[in-house]
Amino acid sequence: MGHRYVEVLKSNNVEMDWVMKHTGPNCPETEGDGLVRLRGLPFGCSKEEI
Question: Mind telling me which GO cellular component terms the entry cites (predicted)?
Fold first, then answer.
């Protein structure tokens, strides 16, 4: 994957609810546990690489 950086941004419940509603049916229920959005990763990236 090369060199990458992690940027952590604070969010609120309204934004989290919007993202959860618009991610589609494949998004598991988190029941308020939190949400991590990953962007800019290669398409072939695996969970182990992250």
Answer: ribonucleoprotein complex
